[in-house]
């Protein structure tokens, strides 16, 4: 028991001694570690202080270096600014000197101007005195003297003046005539239009002679109804298998023709049916007019036209001038105008429109007061067409058209109208036109005889040589041509030839 207790006591004593020894040993080890960390921290602190001192020294050196560089740069800039300041001061001084010199020159120039003005006034005064003296000596005014001088020069130099005028005209027109002829011929060749234009027919074919009586009706009721509703005269004569429709308006004649053709096919000809078919004919004609306008504009390549203007264009299909269809004529003028403009380097599309719309006024000239150029200009302006197109319609018959496009339209119009077979007159109209032409040309003093030849394309005027000299004959031709243009209407152009000859006859006996 005692041994066991002793052993326990010894074990407890040994455990306490071991614990004490372990604690002491751990304390020593910890103290050693603490001392080691403090040494390291002290060392690191020392190294940091050394680096800090080194960095401070380097920074101070760099700052001193930068400060020196900045001072050098500042000194350099100061020197440059000083030089620039001196240069500006020098330029300012020079500018002031030049300004003073300019002011001095201006002053001297003004003085010279004043002197010249005084001298000029004195010269004018002396000149007026001399003119007054000359007028007093000559017993005439300055205007009278100038007029007398001009008359003397004209009398002494009339033949030279005539030769000079003719020479200048010949020289100025030869080159342009050749070039114009080349352009026009090329345009005509490239435009393959029909030479003989169509005519609107006013004849209606009937299946038999018995149909004439049915069209006349009992006591003329049917024919009177047709004439009343259409405004045309129905001529029924001995012409076999046909009747004639006579009327001032081509559109009315066409309505009458369509209505009669429908009545013949229907067979029931009576006033009520006539009224019905006349209305149908008007509707059909309206559609045909619209279709004709659309086809014409399509062939011309013109788009964006107001539908109302398209209908007005379509009416040209039923309008003729000297037997020539105005629709075909307008299309031909449009094509020729475009070709001429392209040769001249102008706007061919605009020229084509100017040519095509130049006679648009003829579509309603039978129903509207005024000439067809004025009506056409009014119509085109109403639909906001280009000003060049409006002026081409207005001035294509004038001596001086509005511009180059109006001139082209005028030339193309003359080309289309002058084609062989394009237009024709009745015998009575032809004779009346030649008589009017001869009468117009003979209304001048000094004319002996006048002849209209070549179907009215030329007028030959024979003058009295003792009353008309060469210079006056030259002016007379212009006056006759101008009067014909003002008073007569004609297709194409008319050549005026003034002939003056002196015959001296003597007999040897």
Core attributes:
509 residues; mainly alpha; Hypothetical protein af1432; GMP Synthetase, Chain A, domain 3; 15 helices; 69% helix; 6% strand
Structure description:
Among the domains are: 203-418, Hypothetical protein af1432; 427-499, GMP Synthetase, Chain A, domain 3. It has 15 helices and 8 strands. The protein starts with a helix and ends in a 10-residue tail after the last strand. It is mostly helical and 509 residues long. The chain is flat, with a radius of gyration of 56 Å. Helix 3 crosses helix 9, helix 10 (348-356) crosses helix 12 and helix 10 (348-356) packs across helix 13. It is 69% helix and 6% strand. The chain has helices spanning 2-138, 142-156, 158-190, 210-216, 221-230, 250-266, 271-300, 307-314, 326-343, 348-356, 372-382, 387-395, 404-418, 427-441, 470-487; strands at 203-205, 233-235, 242-246, 320-321, 324-325, 447-453, 458-463, 495-499. The longest helix has 137 residues, at 2-138. The chain has a 3-stranded antiparallel sheet. It has a 3-stranded mixed sheet with strand order 6-7-8.
Short description:
It contains 15 helices and eight strands.
């Amino acid at each position: 028991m005692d041994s066991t207790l002793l052993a326990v006591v010894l074990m407890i004593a040994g455990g306490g001694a071991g614990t004490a020894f372990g604690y002491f040993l751990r304390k020593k080890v910890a103290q050693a570690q603490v001392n080691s960390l403090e040494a390291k921290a002290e060392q690191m602190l020392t190294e940091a202080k050394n680096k800090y001192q080194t960095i401070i020294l380097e920074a101070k050196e760099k700052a001193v270096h930068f400060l020196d560089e900045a001072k050098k740069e500042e000194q350099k800039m100061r020197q440059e600014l000083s030089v620039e300041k001196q240069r500006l001061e020098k330029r300012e001084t020079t500018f002031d000197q030049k300004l003073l010199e300019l002011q001095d020159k201006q002053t001297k120039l003004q003085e010279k101007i004043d002197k010249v003005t005084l001298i000029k006034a004195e010269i004018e005064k002396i000149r007026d005195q001399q003119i007054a003296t000359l007028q007093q000596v000559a017993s005439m005014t300055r205007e009278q003297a100038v007029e007398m001088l001009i008359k003397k020069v004209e009398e002494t130099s009339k033949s030279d003046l005539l030769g000079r005028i003719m020479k200048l005209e010949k020289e100025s027109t030869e080159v342009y005539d050749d070039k114009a002829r080349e352009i026009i011929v090329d345009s005509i060749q490239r435009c393959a239009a029909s030479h003989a234009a169509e005519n609107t027919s006013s004849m209606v074919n009937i299946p038999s002679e018995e149909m004439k009586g049915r069209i006349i009706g009992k006591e003329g009721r049917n024919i009177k109804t047709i004439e009343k509703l259409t405004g045309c005269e129905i001529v029924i004569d001995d012409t076999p298998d046909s009747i004639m429709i006579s009327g001032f308006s081509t559109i009315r004649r066409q309505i009458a023709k369509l209505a009669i053709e429908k009545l013949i096919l229907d067979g029931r000809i009576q006033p009520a049916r006539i009224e019905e078919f006349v209305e149908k004919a008007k509707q059909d004609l309206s559609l045909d007019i619209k279709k004709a306008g659309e086809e014409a504009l399509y062939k011309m390549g013109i788009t964006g036209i107001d539908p109302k203007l398209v209908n007005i264009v379509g009416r040209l299909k039923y309008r003729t001038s000297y037997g020539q269809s105005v629709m075909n004529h307008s299309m031909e003028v449009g094509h020729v105008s475009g070709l001429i403009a392209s040769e001249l380097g102008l706007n061919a599309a605009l020229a084509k429109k100017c040519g095509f719309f130049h006679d648009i006024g003829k579509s309603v000239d039978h129903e509207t007061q005024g000439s067809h150029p004025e009506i056409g200009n009014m119509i085109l302006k109403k639909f906001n067409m280009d000003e060049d197109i409006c002026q081409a319609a207005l001035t294509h018959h004038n001596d001086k058209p509005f511009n180059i496009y109006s001139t082209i339209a005028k030339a193309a119009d003359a080309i289309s109208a002058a084609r062989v077979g394009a237009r024709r007159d009745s015998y009575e109209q032809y004779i009346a036109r030649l008589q009017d032409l001869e009468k117009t040309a003979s209304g001048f003093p000094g004319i002996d005889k006048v002849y209209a030849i070549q179907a009215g394309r030329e007028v030959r005027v024979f003058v009295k040589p003792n009353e008309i000299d060469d210079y006056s004959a030259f002016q007379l031709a212009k006056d006759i041509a101008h009067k014909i243009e003002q008073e007569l209407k004609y297709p194409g152009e008319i050549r005026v030839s003034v002939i003056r000859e002196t015959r001296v006859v003597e007999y040897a006996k």
